[in-house]
Design a protein that fits this description.
homodimer; 338 residues; alpha+beta; Arc Repressor Mutant, subunit A; Beta-Lactamase; Enolase-like, domain 1; 3 domains; five-stranded antiparallel sheet; three-stranded antiparallel sheet; 50% helix; elongated; DNA-binding
Chain lengths: 338, 338
DNA sequence: ACTGGCACTTGACCGGCGAGAGTGCCAAAG
DNA sequence: CTTTGGCACTCTCGCCGGTCAAGTGCCAGT
């Protein structure tokens, strides 16, 4: 028995099932694919594939549908990367180039990703803790107030206003500004926090209250977890395309979207490169019939956050995977540019 | 024929239908409500109500269900305001008090509103153009760069960095700061823009390029339409509760959420006070079986934006209306406080 | 104006039945 | 050993008809 042909059969079944959403039998399979063998042979192959766990039958005397393991094999070894069309590339580019700030980039990418894939798209906002310090500014306002501005490598601007116990003199502020800048420039935010903590000791004891107040505000800003948890979701209307199995396919996804923590877990484990989680691989029972495709994106070579799509396991993997990684690439480029 | 009793019948039907989601007949109506009359009498009333357009029958020999007009009558004249329970009030309060900034307030209110109403909740971010200027700061950074910070009455902080053609001297910056502050403080953003435009003329011709550059950046910031269009949506998982009529009840709502413009229109027409749009009153055919309840909210007495819920026409109007206005009140208070 | 009674309508539910699609297996042919 | 054609078998799906319960409309009587 030829192993090659058996894998061809598996591929054909996945492709057909994704296209028709219906269990595929030996006869109808041969109508769409020229495999050069008879239905009986295909049946034997199917039986073998089912034995090995790649296929399953909804019921006796129905066609076969792929199992999670079957999709996995398809993704790993059988699918050929589907390049995006030039039109699609252009769509991504024009969509993203109009963005005015980081938030806008994220919102636009969610939209374009949802449109390209016809699925639910998820984009995590660039992580603060994974960014580096691009610029820090310390500015005395009127009275005893000081304005702190942090600009990160991802282009995010955070500002805080600190109410000090006493009015600092010009010299101290200038001194602070240069030493803070020196200590943190180019550092990742967590490291920058450590450097800042060390910095306090180097100041005159009389200035400590003011310095401490400013530094702690900065470290709080650096480790603001809220912004690490933010995500944008789009394309929920595409859930309508998932078909009629509301309770198994649509409701769990909506619930996952509400529970942002779950989504973050699904996306967050993506280290680098494209990650595909199929059905049970997501680790969530409720998501048994959905698949998550995600990848990290970042400015330059620094991974800032992740983005991806959530869809039914019966999805067009090659196209979706291509779209996800293309959008990630463009988003990274856009963030690096501005 | 007693008009009063006929309206009692209508109210009873609306309440029963909302509770059971099934057409209500004369007999089962009397099992739940003591109207002191016989089923036959109720039937006559029902026939009259149907004649007048308040009720309809899915098919002959089924019970009646309210029409949009029936719900309208119920909302306008038949429903009694359902006060929130103390527990619910406390829930809103504790949920909102933890918020750290405006975005957080919006996201938390969307969540609490969705949970209270078991529906899809929508909160528009506080409008920039309807806010007033609370504080403006002009700060020289290193080189020819200037940092502008605007804090609005709604607590939003916007900052811009301007690259000037030449390095401004300290005096000019100080002058600018005080005159800009003087001209715009307490003004609404559109008016502040006008004042700023006038301001340019009052500066020495040599300083004009710098002043113009800063002022135009500010006016752009003031009229940033993007932030006026932003909305937060939550509780989409509650769509699952709408029942099984996916195409008529769930899909259109998801699509409307994607098309934020549609949502903004639905919310945005709310001037002040609670607005209820039932089915066809929404002006969107696709939303024929959904109702929108919205109200404006604001810090102090200034309407900043709107919030509300989207749900099936067969919803618990009194409870939802109470929740929407309560949340709006608390959100307004929270924004005014910080 | 209300009520009881009665005939009528209609969707929901159930069991049976035939058609269609698909399978598994076996014996024969390469 | 692999492939193939044939054949019996198994399910699901859609359809049909009958029964049931809920509900209506109407009419005559109070």
């Amino acid at each position: 028995m030829s192993d090659d042909r058996r894998l061809d059969v598996l591929r054909a079944i996945v492709e057909d099932y994704v296209a028709t959403q219906e269990p595929v039998g030996s006869r109808s399979l041969l109508e769409r694919h020229q495999l050069g063998v008879s239905p009986a042979t295909v049946r034997n192959d199917m039986a073998a594939l089912e034995e090995e766990g790649y296929l399953t039958q909804p019921h006796t005397s129905a066609g076969r549908i792929p199992t999670d393991k079957g999709y996995r094999m398809f993704v790993d070894r059988l699918s050929t990367v589907k390049a995006l069309s030039p039109a699609e590339r252009r769509a991504i580019e024009t969509f993203l180039t109009g963005a005015v700030d980081v938030d806008d980039v994220v919102q636009r990418s969610v939209k374009v990703l949802a449109q390209l894939t016809n699925q639910v798209a998820i984009v995590q906002y660039p992580s603060l803790t994974r960014s580096t310090v691009r610029h820090i500014e310390v500015v005395a306002l009127e009275g005893a107030r000081v304005l702190l501005v942090v600009i990160t490598s991802s282009g995010r601007v955070e500002q805080r206003i600190v109410e000090l116990v006493s009015t600092p003199d010009e010299e101290l502020i200038a001194n602070l500004r240069s030493r803070i800048t020196h200590a943190t420039m180019g550092e990742r935010l967590p490291e920058a926090s450590l450097r800042l903590a060390d910095l306090i000791q180097t100041f005159d004891i009389a200035d400590r209250p003011i310095v401490t107040s400013i530094v702690t505000t900065l470290t709080h800003t650096f480790s603001n977890e809220r912004s690490d948890e933010r995500i944008a979701v789009g394309g929920t209307a595409n859930l309508a395309r998932f078909g009629s199995d509301f309770d198994t396919a649509i409701k769990p996804v909506l619930e996952a979207i509400e529970e942002q923590v779950v989504l973050l877990k699904l996306l967050g484990e993506a280290t680098s490169g494209l990650t595909v989680r199929i059905g049970s691989e997501t680790g969530h029972e409720r998501l048994a019939s959905t698949a998550v495709i995600s990848t990290a994106y970042g400015a330059d070579d620094l991974a800032l956050a992740t983005l991806g799509t959530v869809g039914p396991t019966r999805m067009d993997y090659p196209a979706t995977m291509a779209a996800v990684s293309a959008v990630a690439r463009y988003v990274g480029r856009t963030l690096a540019d501005n």
